[in-house]
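PROTOCOL LOG
Step 1. Enter all chains and additional molecules of the complex.
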Amino acid sequence: MTDSVVRELEISRLSTRETDFEARLESLLCWEGVSSSEVQQRVDEIIEAVKTRGDTALVEYSNRFDRLSASSMEELTLGAERLRKAFDGLPEDQRNALAAAAERIRAYHQHQRPESWRYTEADGSVLGQQVTPLDRAGIYVPGGKAAYPSSVLMNAIPAHVAGVREIVMVVPTPDGVLNELVLAAAHLAGVDHVFTIGGAQAVAALAYGTETVPRVDKIVGPGNIYVATAKRAVFGQVGIDMIAGPSEILVVSDGGTNPEWLAMDLFSQAEHDEDAQAILVGWDAEHLAAVESAMARLLPTMEREAIIRVSLKARGATILCADREEAVALINRIAPEHLELSIEEPESLLPDIRHAGAIFMGRYTAEALGDYCAGPNHVLPTSGTARFSSPLGVYDFQKRSSIIHCSPDGASQLGRTAAVLARGESLTAHARSAEYRIKD
Amino acid sequence: MTDSVVRELEISRLSTRETDFEARLESLLCWEGVSSSEVQQRVDEIIEAVKTRGDTALVEYSNRFDRLSASSMEELTLGAERLRKAFDGLPEDQRNALAAAAERIRAYHQHQRPESWRYTEADGSVLGQQVTPLDRAGIYVPGGKAAYPSSVLMNAIPAHVAGVREIVMVVPTPDGVLNELVLAAAHLAGVDHVFTIGGAQAVAALAYGTETVPRVDKIVGPGNIYVATAKRAVFGQVGIDMIAGPSEILVVSDGGTNPEWLAMDLFSQAEHDEDAQAILVGWDAEHLAAVESAMARLLPTMEREAIIRVSLKARGATILCADREEAVALINRIAPEHLELSIEEPESLLPDIRHAGAIFMGRYTAEALGDYCAGPNHVLPTSGTARFSSPLGVYDFQKRSSIIHCSPDGASQLGRTAAVLARGESLTAHARSAEYRIKD
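Step 2. Run joint prediction.
Step 3. Record the structure below.
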C-alpha cells in the first residue's frame, strides 16, 4: 500500500520569531466541524422517523446504512451474557491487559466522586447541595475501523463509578461485523445492554426511547458527522458530552528526550486519522531538526504510514520558540487536548498552565499510556475547548440539587430582603409569598 | 387592565387514580422550545455577519432591533465606574437588600469550589486533576420586561467566586432604556464591562469576539428564542449553560400548610410569564380544594393577575395522589426545576428524591426566598432536565486538567499493558511509543 521510496517528511516549520507566526499558527489550528445543511436535514428526518415510528424506523435504517437484514430489534440486541462470553473468549494477554486497564481507570475515577454537603446557619436554616447519579446513561461507540475497546472503558466506567442505574451502549455493526474486544470491554465496564445500532438513528433512539431502546438521560461518546449533528440536535432533551473534533497533541521538549521517542509520540497522535494534529514545540533548533530526522527515518517503518504522512503534512508542525516562557504562552494559546511536557522538572511549569485536557509530565509519560491504562480519562476536550471544558469524568454522570431549609427565624429575615428585591422587579406574588413568612 | 368581575379559577385537576392520568400528565408537562427554520436561518445570518464584520454589524443590529442610533460600539459600552454609580444611586432599602443578597449568594457558592487533587502510587507515579478557572465569561442578561437584577447576581457571582479573570456582561437596552438595578447588581457581582447589546448578535460577539467585545470562553444566562438558538449554534466554539425552558414549580403539601401561603407560592411561579408552570401535589383532597379556593380569592388582588390566570389555565394543575410514596414517584417522574416540600419532616423524603433542581424544605421555605437571597443559585434545570443537569454553580466556570506523571518503573509497567491494547486496536505507533519506555 505505501510507497516503497523513502520520501521527504513534509511538515510545517514555524518559528515564533517570524512576522507571520500568529497568522500561520491560526491557520494551522483552524478547525470547524460544520455540518452541511444537507447533513442537518437528513439527521432531522432520521430523528423524526425514530421519534414517531420507533423500532420500525430503527431496524429500517440499520438495515440500510449497515447493510444488515434484521427483521426486529431483538436481532439487534445483546444481553449481559453475550458480553461476558466475549470477554471469556479473548486471548489471555488481551483479557489481562483489558482487565488491568479497567481496574486502573476505575481506581482513578473513584477520586472524582463529588460529595453532598450542607451547613447550618446561626438561625437554624440549612443550606447545601445533594449529589445524585443519573438514572440511565447511553454510550455511543463507533463501529468499523474506529471501534476501540479503550473507548468503551473510558466512557462507561465513569458512569458506573457515578452509580448510574443502567448503562446502555450502542455500536453499529457494518456488514454485521461485531468486535469482540469492544463487547468484552462493555462487560468489564458494567454496561447493562448493547444495541447494535449506530448513526443519527441510534442517538435519536437513546434521546427519545423506542419500544426496545430505553430513553436515557445523557449520551456520551464519539461519532461521525451524523452522530455529532444528531447529538447537537437532541441536546436539551438529553444531556450530551462535548462534540469532539479531531484528536491532537502538543509536545513540548527541552531537548533532553530521545528524538526517536518524541517522533513516535507524535506518530501515535498522527496515526489516528488524516485530520489528527501533532505539534512539537521547543527552543532548541538542533533538537527539533533531530526529531524531524527521526520522523523521516521511522516513518517508512510504520504500519499506518500513509495516514501519518497525510496528517503530518496537513496539520502537523514543529514550532521553534525562544524559551520556556514562550512555550507556556503557546500552551495556553492552543489549549491542547493532550500536552506532553517532555522536559526536566515539568512540575515547575504546572502552575502556569491554564488550559489543557490532560498533561503528560516528564520523559517517560508517553501519551499512549494515558490512552489505555494510566487511569485518567482519554475522552478530552479538543480544538481548544480545554479553555472551558474538562475530561469526561464521574461528574458528567451526576447532578446536584440545591437544598434550602429555612427555620422560621431565617425565613422571616430573608423574607424582608426578598420582598424588597421582588418589588424592585415588579414581581409582587414573589414579594407576598415571602412576606407571609415574616414574623411581626 | 384586569377584569373587575371575579371569575372562576381555571386550573387542571388531575388524580393519579384516573385511567388517563399518565396521558394527561404527559400533555401537561410537554414542552419543546423548538426554533423554526426561519429563526434558525436569521440567527445563522446574524452570527455570520458579526463574525465577518464585527463591531459594524453589532452596531447595525443594535440600532435596528433596539431602536437606537449609536454610531460606534463605544456608545454601547459601560465601564466599571458607571456600574458603581448605578449602585450608589439606588434608594437605601434596595441598595441594602441587593448587597445582602449578593453576600449570601457569595457565601453559599464558596462551598462549591472543587479542589485539585493528586495521589502517588507505589512505583512513584503521580496521578491527579488540576482545577483552573475560565479566563473569560460572558453573562447574557435580557433587557426590557424581563430585566432582573437577581439574574445578574446569580449568573455572575459563581463566575467571580470561581476566579474567572474577566466577566463581561451584555444586556440589550430597547429604546435606550437602562435598568439601574441591573447595573448595580453587575457592580456587586464583579462584572468588569457591560455592553448594551442583545439578541443573537450579542451571543455571536461573545463567541467569536469583535474589535470591541472580547471573545469569551463560556456564555451563560437566559434569553428569548433568538438567544437560545444562537447559543445552541455557537456551542462548541464556546461553552454554554443549559438552554432554559419556562420556569416551573412542584409544590407537595401534606395538608398542614396555610392554603393562602401555598396559593401565593404557586402564584409566584405563575406570574413569571404565560408559559410558567405551577403544580400542586397532595393526598388530602379537601386541602387541595382549600388551596384552590384561596387561589380564586387571592387572584383578583394580584398585580399580575392576567399573566397568572393564563399560566394557571394553560399549564397549572392540582394533582391528587394516594400518599407520600406516590408523591415521591411524581417528583422523580417530573424532575421539577423547583420543588417545595411543604410537609412535616421534609428531611425524611430527601433520600428518595432523585431529580430536582432545588428543594425548598418545610412550610417556611417559600420558593421566592431562593429566587433572591437564600444563597443557592436560581438558575436551575427546567423541563425535566434536572434528570441530568445541575443548578448553575462555581463548577460551571472552572475546568479540570488530568495530571499524569509516570515514574520510569510506572511507565515500564504501564507500557506493557498499553502495547497489548494498542496492538489490539491496530494502533502500532501507540504501541511502539509505549514500548520505548519498557525497561528490559
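Step 4. Note key features.
The two ends of chain A are 87 Å apart (CA to CA).
Chain A has three domains: 3-30+245-387, 37-114+131-240, 406-435.
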